[in-house]
Amino acid sequence: MEAPQQQQPAAAKIRNLPWVEKYRPQTLNDLISHQDILSTIQKFISEDRLPHLLLYGPPGTGKTSTILACAKQLYKDKEFGSMVLELNASDDRGIDIVRGPILSFAISVISSHRDSDQCDLSETYEKKTKFSKFGKKCLHSWAFRQGPLEGASSSCPGKVVDITEDGMKALVTLSSGDMRRALNILQSTNMAFGKVTEETVYTCTGHPLKSDIANILDWMLNQDFTTAYRNITELKTLKGLALHDILTEIHLFVHRVDFPSSVRIHLLTKMADIEYRLSVGTNEKIQLSSLIAAFQVTRDLIVTEA
């Protein structure tokens, strides 16, 4: 009677895992995209000549999943814990990490390959690279760049999610090729709303909807300064929008509209200045005033050139 009770917490733990961990690929064949890199690594493994590897690129492009899949293919479950050392470079860095956990791990790996448990320190330094494969090494290594992922695909096998076509496009847009971010947004939206649509995705992330951007542009170009400022401020407060996200969407609009070259240059320069000032912590209300003023001047420039 006690066995099911002991298994229940473990099942609950798995059920409550973030999808990015729960559905992490277990083998190289489970990975999507970067097929040229995966086929090269697979060939190295099959020929038993895997070199040190350096995987680099933007976040969420499969670097951790790739190296873990390699390790799981090289070692059985019972060997995995003793043969694989995973370090987070954000926290585990500095010479003390090299002299401590990394050296201890190398010694333990070498010991497992010797008949005797005794080995002197000089042999350890000479042999540690023979038995240890490093996921980050600059000399005598193969370097692979894993770029942002394109499009979207089924990343959660066995998981049924009610998602619309525009919801999928919104995920792709907001994740910008970062699969980790895409899965986190997908899970959050699914838990909060049940159905994943463009509106629920943008609402869940606090990102302005296309209709919001259309209204903001209409106010800045067709209303007086005071009315535009009041309406945009009310919308930002109501929906919890960040001026930086609004600026990003408006930037795309400026490139799509057929403005005269001088007008487009004026707008892009002003928007770049606003983005920089926001990045150093200036007041959003002042920067919003600057953005509205830039578009009001743009309106006058268009009239003048016409």
TrEMBL record:
Localization (cell): Nucleus
GO BP term, pick one: DNA-templated DNA replication
Pfam families hit by this protein: Rad17, Rep_fac_C
GO molecular function: ATP binding; DNA binding; DNA clamp loader activity; enzyme binding; single-stranded DNA helicase activity
Principal cellular location given in the protein's record: nucleus
Alphabetic keyword roster: ATP-binding, DNA replication, Nucleotide-binding, Nucleus
Gene3D superfamilies listed in its UniProt record: 1.10.8.60, 1.20.272.10, P-loop containing nucleotide triphosphate hydrolases (3.40.50.300)
Boundaries of every Replication factor C C-terminal domain copy: 208-294
Keyword check for Ion transport: no
Keyword Nucleotide-binding: yes
A cellular-component GO term for this protein: Ctf18 RFC-like complex
Quaternary data: Subunit of the RFC complex, an heteropentameric complex consisting of a large subunit RFC1 and four small subunits RFC2, RFC3, RFC4 and RFC5; the RFC complex interacts with PCNA. Forms an heterotetrameric complex with RFC2, RFC3 and RFC4; this complex has ATPase activity but is not stimulated by PCNA. The heterotetramer of subunits RFC2, RFC3, RFC4 and RFC5 interacts with RAD17.
Family named by the database record: Belongs to the activator 1 small subunits family.
Function, in words: Subunit of the replication factor C (RFC) complex which acts during elongation of primed DNA templates by DNA polymerases delta and epsilon, and is necessary for ATP-dependent loading of proliferating cell nuclear antigen (PCNA) onto primed DNA.
Name of this chain's protein: Replication factor C subunit 5
Record lineage: Eukaryota, Metazoa, Chordata, Craniata, Vertebrata
Gene: Rfc5
